[in-house]
Amino acid sequence: MTQAVPGGLDGVSCILFDLDGTLADTIDLIIHCFRETLRILGLPPRSDAQILSEIGRPLHQQTRDIDPERAEEIFALYQRLYAESHDEMVREFPGVREALDELTRRGYRMGVVTSKRSASAGPDLEFFRLERFFEVVITADDTSRHKPDPEPVLEALRRLEARPAQATFIGDSPHDMRSAHAAGVLAGAAAWGPFPLEVLRAEEPDYWIEEPPDLLSFFPGVTD
Asked: pTM above the 0.85 mark?
């Protein structure tokens, strides 16, 4: 899957990242919490593939889709289970922290664009000791529309005072690719995430990154 680095990345000085499945391996935890939430509340089960396909959409939207009348109950139980099992179930993606540290040294400004609420995103970044790398963290609390809409990416650029041509958004889901393209920024596909590669290929990402350390090959340093 190796491909040439797109020339458009030469002018990039701002790198935006998705959180779940891109910066942090929280996927097993998310699937576990959905399974348990539906089981405890006596709601119809969902397959792992169904749960996975929704990752990247805000939780409050997903709970309304499951049962509008019980959405708050579903949301509250999921959040409790997530907090209880978080530390024992989440995992680091090897090389993420080291790559972010070097990208910072090379002069890149970075941000997170996630569909999580700040109450979940903040603790995740702190747990993985990643918060210091990011100037902005855009969560579901910050915009009225969410991925795959471009608004979260555009809000990150607004806070960074950057133009779309100066930025790229790297994620692991179709929602990330669509949000990036709709915002007019280059979309980078994180191949180490949980989505099948053919699902991401259908979104026509502008470039692929095989493993976190490969980020350094795509971003050699900010040029004036």
From this structure: yes
